[in-house]
Amino acid sequence: MKNSRNKKFITDILIYGIGNLGSKMITFLLVPLYTYFIKPEEYGYYDLSLNIIFLMIPFVTLQLREGVFRFLLDSDSEKIRINIVTFTYKLLIQTTLAVLLIAFIASSFLTIPYIGWIVFALIFMSFYEVQIQIVRGIGNNKYYVIAGIITASLTGIFSVLCIVFFNMGIAGIFCASILARIFSICILESRLHLIKKYFYYNFKDKDVNLSLINYSLPLLPNVICWWLISSSNRFFISNYLGFEENGIYAVATKFSSILETFTIIIYQAWQETAIKQFKSSDKNSYFSKVLNTYILVLAIMAISFVLILKMNNSWLVSPKYLQSLDYLYPLSISVIFYALAAFLDMGYQCSKQTIKTLPATIITAILNVLLNYLFIQKYNIYGVILSSIISYMFLFVYRLFDTRKYFVIKISLKVVFPIFILLSGYFVYYKIESILVYFLYLSAILLLSYLYIENSIKDKIKNQCKILLHRK
User: Fold this and answer.
1) Are 59 and 97 contacting, i.e. CB atoms less than 8 angstroms apart?
2) Residue-number span of the structural domain to which 326 is assigned
3) Residue 399 lies in a domain
4) Among residues 58, 74, 105, 326, which one has the fewest Cβ atoms lying within 10 Å of its Cβ?
5) How many Å apart are CA 48 and CA 404, to the nearest integer?
């Protein structure tokens, strides 16, 4: 039992890793394209618009994109699956019509640049997000991974066409994103026939629908709070420092999102494992072991990531965006605490008590907005990054104690080693400009980390990698 769950967890990490890293690498390669063809102030406006879209997606989907995955994962009944998918799509169609009506009325009274592109990006991103969570919920991780790679690849192709050849500017980024998702939705439907199999307009089960709504709706205020924590800083930057600075910060976050992708890979794999192991007798020790190992992994990834990027800064961005690299190190610390707080979110998801996430996220959101206001006027962009670090740190500590009703996590004293990695990494990143020193430092950290990890974990990773390679 214990070996099978570890093998499943590691296998899921590798599967999600292939898809997420493949798609993120394509997105990463688009950064030089954006920085060379789009001005910082224009990219700053696009980034602001994109963050508004991210805020609105939960309202368009009513967070059923999260609920549909959670309930499909638990269900072995074809009848219940049909009900879940049918109910989700019906609500999504209704909210989409409401969005179109609101956008039409708003555009009659207000002048909003690129309003049409923003609305259609919102709609198709919402449909895409729901569809891939359905794919994941029915256990088809292969197509979930493929969808991510296809979407990223098509976004890259359409971005080159729209921005370079048709000179559409930021409208080209919106257009590429919309077309990529339309094609991906059609490809998934042609291969899996989700609508044909699971969508029956007149089919409904009130009890299942009510349970799904009770799970999903409490996530809405939670998502709003998460958005305030992670994205409201764009409004502070745009207001106090201008769109140009927001464009530079947006590029920095594009880079840090690569590190965030690694944490999402582990989170997605952990999500399935945690839900299935929630009722196991040794969940406390197992969850603690995973978290302590995760802290080390995050520290290694963060330092490796920022130093590798710094070694390649000459070709990554145009000179007008070069300042963005100064923010990478503190942004990576922010990502670490975000990932640790998200890890503990499993307590609420496993127990299906998502409403209990609200107190912590509401307090954290208020704290973050307040700190943004106080710090940005004194420390500029570093101020908003510091606000994020403090906010995520607070949320992690709060959840560490609050989730004791679901599982008891014990932080090992060995956490001193990851802290040492981060502190020494700060000195190397900001005080040294030698690629040789970077290489020697990373080699030493990786060697020490390998010695630090338990032999049982090393053996499991080796064996699982051999199995996957043998399959290929």
Assistant:
1) no
2) 1-15+238-472
3) yes
4) 105
5) 37
Both tokens assigned to 61: 């989907």
In a domain, 207, yes or no: no
Q: What's the CA gap between 437 and 301, in Å, rounded? A: 18
**How many whole angstroms separate alpha carbon 262 and alpha carbon 298?**
9
Rounded CA gap, 237 and 373, in Å? 10
The DSSP symbol for 386 reads: H
DSSP assigned state of 151 = H
Q: DSSP assignment of 387-429, as one string?
A: HHHHHHHHHHHHHHHHGGGT------GGGHHHHHHHHHHHHHH
Query: Structural domain tally of the chain?
Result: 1
For 97-123, the pLDDT digits (tens) are 999 999 999 888 888 889 999 999 999
Residue with tokens 């099978």: 4
Q: pTM to 2 decimals?
A: 0.70
| Per-residue tokens: 334 | 């922010």
Decide if pLDDT at 136 tops 80. Answer: yes
Q: Examine residue 104 and state whether it is found in any structural domain, yes or no.
A: no
173 in a structural domain: no
What does the alpha-carbon distance between residue 327 and residue 332 come to, in Å, rounded to a whole number? Answer: 9
